[in-house]
Amino acid sequence: MAAAHQPLTTALNRIRVGSAPDSWGVWFPSDTQQTPWRRFLDEVTEAGYEWIELGPYGYLPTDPARLTEETAQRGLKVSAGTVFTALHRGPAVWDATWDHVAQVAALTRAMGARHLVVIPAFWRDDKTAELIESPELTVAQWHELTAGMERLAHQVRDRYGLDIVVHPHADTHIDGEENVTRFLDATDPELVSLCLDTGHYSYCGGDSVKLIETYGERIGYLHLKQVDPVILSDVVKNEIPFGPAVQRGVMCEPPAGVPALEPVLIAAQGLGIDLFAIVEQDMYPCPPDQPFAIAQRTRRYLRGCGA
């Protein structure tokens, strides 16, 4: 008789698992539909995570002393900050972009983190889902995007000692395999790495394991989530924007969706570097009592994968 399948028991000792405000339905610095920040910190701790991201700047306290006190008393550490950029729009947006990045980078460094997750601007409004610019970039805009990202990486590293990791994201210009490959091929690997989000990459038709195996030297950070393939099929068929798709539950907890996370984690472990793997399940908006149980089950699932 064949042996029953057992969860992976070999420890993925290069993978550091955490979670993020996003897994508690947090997309904005302030929103009455979101989980209050103290509740997030209490619940993420109780769910078994010791690493967190800062989330939208202003959601958690921005005073480093206060945030250090709040995280330390719960045994939490910060893995990264997050910024949104629209660098494809060229020099006209640089000063405003840098002002925002500098704020987040300063807090990120003060909290002892070493990474800044950089998300390209949406081509839809993030609340109304209205189309606000073309989903396709011109050649000139691609140049502005890639050159601007390298400039950003230089300054963030020189001034704050942080590494940027660029996050391919649905409804942005860096999304699926074609655009991610184009972006990587046009940027300096010494400056620009990726935050591979398994859910967004699958949402956009990409294969996370293939990306790790092909561009392993460019993977600097992971976001873990899954996509419900049935809901995604309807989203693609009906060209539903990302925000409404999230409200339909397109991003789901493991192991209910795709991609399978165990092969992703094994491939990431095989890179031989220390990597954060931050659970980041898009759920805006969600009932206040929903995130905690999902976070607990997800942490238990990841332990069963060896992480």
How far apart are the first and last residues' alpha carbons, in Å? 29 Å
- For CATH, the homologous superfamily is named as Divalent-metal-dependent TIM barrel enzymes
How large is the radius of gyration? 18 Å
Give the helix/strand class.
alpha/beta
Helix content: 25-40%
Mean pLDDT: 95
User: Architecture in CATH?
Assistant: Alpha-Beta Barrel
SSE ordering: EHEHEHEHEHEHHEEHHEHEH
Number of helices: 11
Beta strand %: 15-25%
Give the CATH class. Alpha Beta
Shape: globular
Biggest sheet descriptor: 8 strands, parallel
* Count of the separate structural domains: 1
Low-confidence stretches: 1-9
* Cross-sheet strand order for the largest sheet: 1-10-7-6-5-4-3-2
DSSP strand count: 10
User: If you consult CATH, what is the topology?
Assistant: TIM Barrel
Keywords: Lyase
Domain Xylose isomerase-like TIM barrel: 42-243
InterPro entries: IolE/XylAMocC-like, Xyl_isomerase-like_sf, Xyl_isomerase-like_TIM-brl
EC number: 4.2.1.44
Overview of this structure, please?
This protein has a single domain, classed as TIM Barrel (Alpha-Beta Barrel), CATH 3.20.20. It contains eleven helices and ten strands. The protein has helices spanning 37-46, 64-72, 94-110, 139-160, 177-185, 198-203, 208-214, 229-237, 242-247, 261-269, 290-304, and strands at residues 15-19, 51-53, 77-85, 115-120, 163-166, 193-197, 219-224, 226-227, 251-252, 275-279. It has an eight-stranded parallel β-sheet with strand order 1-10-7-6-5-4-3-2. Strands 8-9 form a two-stranded antiparallel sheet. Strand 2 (51-53), helix 2 (64-72) and strand 3 form a beta-alpha-beta unit. Helix 3 (94-110) packs parallel to helix 4 (139-160) and helix 7 (208-214) packs parallel to helix 10 (261-269). Mean pLDDT is 95; it is low at 1-9.
